[in-house]
Amino acid sequence: MIQKMNETDSSFRVISRKTENLFETELNDELILMRAQTGEYITLNKVAKIIWKKIEQPTTFEELINHLLSQFNVSKEICISETNQLLEKLNNEGLLN
């Protein structure tokens, strides 16, 4: 399970995504994920799509946050908070290793 991260937590925790039985396609700025077995789908917005692409290869939480901060004008605290929320959702959907 993904634990919420903050600056005092281990920034070296590795995050990676599952790809088996999952199809994806891009639609404008969004990414649509579909489970092959159930046909269920999940739509990722622009930021979530960037996170999904970044965690294709195992990535530390710190690397992920730094990557996002280099692309968006957002405070580190908000970036950490919102990234945690997304990772928790992806984990609850069974999409993270």
CATH class: Alpha Beta
Question: What string gives the helices and strands in order?
Answer: EEEEHEHH
What count of helical segments does DSSP give? 3
Oligomer: single chain
Give the termini distance in whole angstroms.
9 Å
Total beta-strand segments: 5
Characterize the largest beta sheet: strand count, sense, and whether it forms a barrel: 3 strands, antiparallel
Rounded radius of gyration (Å): 13 Å
Write down the CATH topology.
Outer Surface Protein A, domain 3
Topology:
Layout: E1 14-15, E2 22-27, E3 30-35, E4 41-44, H1 46-54, E5 59-60, H2 61-71, H3 76-92
Antiparallel strand pairs: 1-5, 2-3, 3-4
Question: Would you kindly provide a written description of the structure presented here, covering whatever features stand out?
Answer:
The chain is an alpha+beta fold. The protein has one domain (14-92): Outer Surface Protein A, domain 3, CATH 3.90.930. Helix content is 38%, strand content 21%. The chain is built from 3 helices and 5 strands. The strands form 2 sheets. Strands 2-3-4 form a 3-stranded antiparallel sheet. A hairpin with a 2-residue loop joins strand 2 (22-27) and strand 3.
Short description:
With 97 residues, this protein is of the alpha+beta class. It contains three helices and five strands.
